[in-house]
User: Fold this.
Amino acid sequence: MTAGPLIEIEGLRVRFHGDDGRVTHAVDTIDLSVANGATLGIVGESGCGKSVTSLAIMGLLPRGSAEVTGAIRFDGFDLLKTSDATLRDLRGNRLAMIFQEPMTSLNPSFTIGDQIIESILRHRGGSRKSARDRAIELLRRVHIPSPERRIDEYPHKLSGGMRQRVMIAMALACDPRLLIADEPTTALDVTLQAQILELMRELKAASGAAIILITHDLGVVAEVCDEVAVMYAGEIVERAAVDELFAAPQHPYTVGLLGSIPRLDHRAAQLATIEGMVPNMAQPPAGCRFAARCPFIVDACTKAPPPLAEVGPGHLSRCIRAPLERLVS
Amino acid sequence: MTALLEVEGLVKHFVAERSLLGRPRAHVKAVDGVSFSLEAGKTLALVGESGCGKSTVSRLVLRLIEPDAGRIRFDGQDLLALDPTALRGFRRQAQIIFQDPYASLNPRMTVGQILTEPLALHDLLPAAQRRGRVEELLRLVGLEPRLARRYPHEFSGGQRQRIAIARALAVEPKLIICDEPVSALDVSIRSQILNLLRELQDRLGLAYIFVSHDLAVVKHIADNVAVMNLGRIVETAEADALFTAPRHPYSRALLSAIPLPQPQAKRNTILLQGEMPSALNPPSGCRFHTRCPFVADRCRSEEPQLVGDGTGHATACLRVAELPPAGAILPQSGGFSPALAKLVAAFSRKTEGAEASGVGIQGATPTMTSSKGTVR
Assistant:
């Protein structure tokens, strides 16, 4: 592990301009960094901006309607300022992404081999024969049985778990430094999920790549991440090391999330519920965005937006009432 | 106590391929000899991976599809002997809630129309009283009665699932089949729906068949659990017994595969090797033998039967007596620190004491408060 972050996101904002002139603030002033070899989890519910953040990093947001500002520094480039040609060189090469839907993110009319080889030839060059050998090697690394035969199959012949493995093999084709995985196991059964998570851990250990894992599943975060950022309504509301976040969360939203998941390890008569709804992001509220749903609300919460402030070593919370322990003691 | 629902030897094979002359050439053995029973007011969960037949079982029980063999008795009645009129009568007793609240409500009907339809179909109430009943149903599921005039697209996923639950409750059924009712919902919404389902069960004495692949959810809601693999039940037990000491290697693997929201947890994850075999051509002998870490020779040829132990815990595994103890599949020391537990409790308290906040549609979510009396 070398010093200094591999990727540094500063003041990232994404605003979508609708046809009717409405502006939606999808992501609002996000600061994040990931060190080499680390795994950062981004957690949040639908619409919190976690996927938009990942698409912004990859430069995959529609130019016409999405206004992206801030800075994303990766490997000496500012990804928001580089040319399309440079971005194309980076994507699939040093910067790779796995999507949620293995059913729709493979092209049904090409064999899986063609799809992996395409990326190797584009970024590494060399002969088709050597690219094919590398593709077989990659399929073997993601534990696809008899890869020499499988490489010539079309995606429809593979099960969901196999397809996700092919996606991972594709992402790994050029030894990326950063792998963004957007809900990589959400569409899979638990037994397959366990296999894929194990595979990701294995690959990280072998290659030293950094991973940004986007998920709504706190269990997955606990299993694979070193650090977690919790997003709510386009903002990061809490950031901490994984142990710290699960043991002593410092934002009420995180507390609500932890209380609302049914647990295998202990029993709750009734689950916590976070009442109300996510605020309308066309007109974000003036104060704390979680205030309307928060049981710990005080007057000051609705007056001004709370800053993301340090509440402990390496532990940030966007809540003026933190540390929360003193509220219940 | 006699069971509300008794299912015996249920079989359903779908034709997967036909010859030129239309003769079936291959069958998917979706359900292959499934038996269970369910008492009134209780919850039975059917769990397993995609394609294990759990959804097919739930549809067979309602006779939404016809079984090839087996018996289903509901409230002492032989369901398979019912003629169409009697079957319609039965549908008043048993209802279903589907996974996708976006696809299971008719977008062209208002919520009021959606909820009135079952009342009219079964001729339950004079037309004049139906509007009152619709309001009552909406309140029951925690929605404001004035929302009856709106269309499904105006609601969030969680609210739509509440409407689907209200529709199922309209005919005052004894049994509701919940087919992955919370899988499509966000975690915070999921907990609201789970709490609602439980509360309704307490108040109305409903029995649930809860189909899910999410074992944490199942542990929270079920009294009994049946684990299915490739069209068969491999283990069935009281929920607590199953989660404390799963016996079948497949149940163990399933339980151990669930990621726990507990980063420090020390436990043994059992990674199943290989792919799930196809139900077109299930393995001989024990259907789990291709993936089982404890496989022995006889597992490949001999088919295990579901054998009970007298406490209601039954396992279909030839080697069940020889298996090592399940060990640390689930860590014992879960749970929140005292401070965190109090913080979490603040979220539950708010639910119970709060009034609907009244901010447009959003505020329409929770008015469960008035009915909370019986629930802790």
